[in-house]
Amino acid sequence: MKLGFIGLGIMGTPMAERLAKAGHQLHVTTIGPVSSTLLELGAQHLETAKQVAEKSDIIFIMVPDTPHVEAVLFGENGCAEASLKGKTIVDMSSISPIETKRFAAKVNAAGADYLDAPVSGGEIGAREGTLSIMVGGDESVFNRVKPLFDVLGKNITLVGGNGDGQTCKVANQIIVALNIEAVSEALLFASKAGADPARVRQALMGGFASSRILEVHGERMLKRTFNPGFKIALHQKDLNLALQSAKALALNLPNTATCQELFNTCAANGGSDLDHSALVQALELMANHKLS
C-alpha cells in the first residue's frame, strides 16, 4: 500500500519502520530528522503533510498533542489542502476525544474516512510490534486498516465510534499513572522502613500485587534509568485531558488529580523529559529519602 506517516518521534519512528519492513511504500514527514533505517527501507521524505496526503492512500499521524493534529490536518500545507476524497486518516496520537469527533466530521465532509487509534505499550511495544491499539471509527474502515494495525500491535480493539478510541486511551493513562504512583509509594515505603526494595519488588512479582508496571517501571525506579520511553510531559498532557473531561462530565477523579500534582512536582524540578516512572522522584522529595 501507499502509506503516509506524519510524526517520527520516539513512537512514530519504530512504527513507521515496521510498516516499511512489511513491504509498504511510505511517504513521511516530521519536524526532526528521519532515521537512516527508514530511508534505507525506501521511505520517501517529503516536506509537508499536504505532500504526504497527495501521495498516500492511508495517512498515519503520530504527533504529541491536539493542536499538532489540528495543524497537520487543517493548517497551512496540511492534509486537507490536498484532495482527501477516498483516502483514510488514522490518527494514532493521544489527544482530546471531543476535538477528535470534530476533526473526524471535517475529514468525512472532505470525502475521507477517519479512525482515531491511540496506542499503549511505549517505545518497546512500538519496536516489537506489541502495542495495544484502541480504535474509534466505522467498522468497515477498521476492517480495511486492520492488517496494518496487525503489523504494529497485538491487542487491537474497535471500541466504538470516532472519539471512543481516544476516550479509551485517556482511561488507560489514568490506570497507568495510578499504578506508577502505587509502585512508587510501595517501594519507597519498603526502602525507608529498612528493607531492600529490589528484594521487595522480587517478592511482590510473585503475588497478587504483580503488574507490568511493577515489572518494568519498578526496575526503572531501582536502577534510576529514567531515559524516556514515555515522557512525563506527555503523561501530564494525557491526565490534563482526563481532568478536563471529568470536569465537563461533573465527575471527580481525585487520585488522577493527585498523580497530576506529582508529575507537576517532577516537572517543576526539571523532570519534564524524564520517563514517567520518574514520578517516584516527587515522592522521594517529600520523604527526603531515595530508593536504596
Please sum up the structure shown:
With 292 residues, the protein is α/β, with parallel strands linked by helices. It is 53% helix and 14% strand.
Explain what the structure shows.
By secondary structure, the protein is an alpha/beta fold. 53% of the residues lie in helices and 14% in strands. The strands form two sheets. It has a six-stranded parallel sheet with strand order 3-2-1-4-5-6, with helices on both faces. Strands 7-8-9 form a three-stranded mixed sheet. Strand 2 (25-29), helix 2 and strand 3 (44-45) form a beta-alpha-beta unit. The longest helix has 29 residues, at 164-192. It is globular, with a radius of gyration of 20 Å.
